[in-house]
Design goal:
The protein is α+β, with helices and mostly antiparallel strands. The chain has 5 helices and 7 strands; from the N terminus they run E-H-H-H-E-E-E-H-E-H-E-E.
Length: 177
Amino acid sequence: MTGDVVLRRYGHEDLAGIRQMLLDVHADAYRDQLGDEFVQRFPWFVDHWGGHPGFACVVGFDEGEPVGFAYGAPAGEGREWWREHLEVPPADGSTFSVSELMVRPRWRKTGTAHRLHEALLEGRPEALAVLLVDPGHPKVEALYGRWGYRRVGFRQPFPDSPNYAVMVRELRVPAVP
């Protein structure tokens, strides 16, 4: 590990070439939980998110070795499911859904996760970013809080998934009329 992590961007058209790499990083990041049925469905999630034309992915490499990634896609109009958690939704509800952020164990606590996350959101045209966090990991939720997210509710997207904390972050300050 050199500490010189290089970030590379990928899109929907690149999925076939990076899919196995994402699966390999996931297998290392979750090696202690690979027996969990929900964790085993990760290939489905990669294909689901990667199949979106707006799919965006940032992968970090240390001397050519993948160390982590972040990916997501814009929410389709009318698919801003987080709105149900707000009394007054913002006028501009355009949303980028951050689906995954994972760093292999050897590169954790090096700032790599933050770099991947910020690179993924850099220059996004959407007004908001949304993500789900397992509330069983309060340190992770607190980390996202330091990155500008706030918890707005809870959501269990699948019967076998945790009841995740829904977190939202403004990506740009709304214009004042």
